[in-house]
């Protein structure tokens, strides 16, 4: 089985556009939706459909297919790209919230090294923990880089 944090041909940018904001979506595996949708939303998925994740922070849609959409309220977790709260995870597998990353950065800790070690030990489960359905490390790196700029 391929690690969630390795490059995969299954995670290419979809040509499908979000029906709400019209931005391109990023393909997600069905296992991601099955893991993160509320039970009432889970009962409505079309398992034969392809789904995508909407990256637009101002769009209410999280997942979409050519048949349906799921908003933030349909998920069991807050979505990093859609919720600016400090307690929202940036890394869903190992509990790195914005607040924890800010604190670690102020204390000159290296959370990206910790996460990389966990990934290398095959402990991540981004495909079932991260609403994006892909490795969180890029989000963590970008978040910390932006902290360093401010």
Structure description:
This protein has 150 residues and is of the alpha+beta class. 31% of the residues lie in helices and 17% in strands. It has two domains: 10-74, N-terminal domain of TfIIb, CATH 2.20.25.270; 89-149, no CATH class. It contains six helices and seven strands. The strands form two sheets. The chain has a five-stranded antiparallel β-sheet. A two-stranded antiparallel ribbon has the order 6-7. It starts with 12 loop residues before the first strand and ends with a helix. The model is unreliable at 7-14 (pLDDT under 50).
For the structure shown, list the relevant keywords.
single chain; 150 residues; alpha+beta; N-terminal domain of TfIIb; five-stranded antiparallel sheet; two-stranded antiparallel sheet; 6 helices; 7 strands
Q: What structural class should be given to the helix and strand makeup?
A: alpha+beta
Tell me which CATH architecture of the largest domain applies here: Single Sheet
Estimate the mean pLDDT confidence: 91
**What is the CATH domain class of the largest domain?**
Mainly Beta
Residue fraction in strands: 15-25%
| Tally of DSSP helical segments | 6
Oligomer: single chain
